[in-house]
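Researcher: Next entry in the queue.
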Amino acid sequence: MRHHFACPLRWSDMDAFGHVNNVVFLRYLEEARVDFLFRLAQEADAGSFASGAVVARHEIDYLRPLVHRSEPVAVETWVSKIGAASVTLGYDVKDADAVYARAATVIVPYDLKEGRPRRLSAAERSFLEPYLDDSFRDPAAPASR
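Model: Structure for this entry, 145 residues:
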């Protein structure tokens, strides 16, 4: 199962070369991730990572240029790995015609009051498991030899 987020493109997302700037893709991933981990998880009564979560790593493969248009781009999110104290999310930034970027983010649950990482709660793990799909190559994983 994947989470689907329709992300609008803004005129300001463009760079001098006429395509969406590479840094803006991080914002698209963030918008999809916040919708997934906070809104959707909260609706599922999974605790919504409300006690905190931090990004430990991003990795993006840019596959083709994305240019401004009025239609939103789709950001599909799935879980590629669940650890005791981290989760790796995979993403495709795409439309019906092409995949523009594939990315991964490692998220670490974080106790904001204590100022340290924490383990995933049972509710968080239960929310994430239906989205687990490790069949896609994780850009954040080391290359196999």
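Model: The chain has one domain: 3-131.
Researcher: Noted, moving on.
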